[in-house]
Write a structure and sequence with these properties.
It is built from one helix and nine strands; from the N terminus they run αβββββββββ. It is mainly β and 126 residues long. The chain has one helix spanning 3-19, and strands at 44-47, 53-54, 58-60, 64-70, 75-79, 90-94, 97-103, 107-112, 120-125. A hairpin with a 7-residue loop joins strand 8 (107-112) and strand 9 (120-125). It folds into two domains: 1-31, no CATH class; 44-125, Cupredoxins -  blue copper proteins (Immunoglobulin-like).
């Protein structure tokens, strides 16, 4: 066997050894998928790209913080009636963000999005 053939064979052997075995760069070859995101809290209202608030109504106990979850489409929240227990409105165009409001007094709080006519919901506080 010639020197060139031995060198070529050796290099081929090394290349095959480097490609086989453990399953890839980083060792181990076993990768676990990332864990799924946690489910949304029971006190979350999602403002969806379909221009609906979900769920509506949302029922909570007095003193509960409610998270308004704004996805990729911008929304806002304005409460229909302002009284001592009504939390502050959420003005602007909110996208990819979450805003919390605490409901301290029992009652039904109706709200709407001024950007999308007809998009409305309510929070029932017990």
């Amino acid at each position: 066997m010639s020197v060139a053939t031995r060198i070529t064979s050796g290099l081929l052997f090394l290349a095959l050894a480097a490609c086989g075995g453990a399953g890839g760069y980083g060792g181990g070859g076993v990768t676990n998928p990332p864990p799924p995101p946690p489910p949304p809290a029971g006190n979350t209202i999602n403002a969806t790209p379909a221009e609906v608030f979900n769920p509506t109504p949302l029922t909570v106990t007095a003193g509960t913080a409610v998270t308004f979850n704004f996805g990729t489409l911008g929304h806002n929240v304005f409460f229909d009636t302002q009284n001592a227990g009504t939390p502050a409105d959420i003005p602007g165009i909110n996208a990819n963000s979450q805003v919390q409001r605490t409901f301290t007094t029992a009652g039904t709080y109706r709200y709407h999005c001024t950007i999308h006519p007809g998009m409305a919901g309510s929070v029932v506080v017990q």
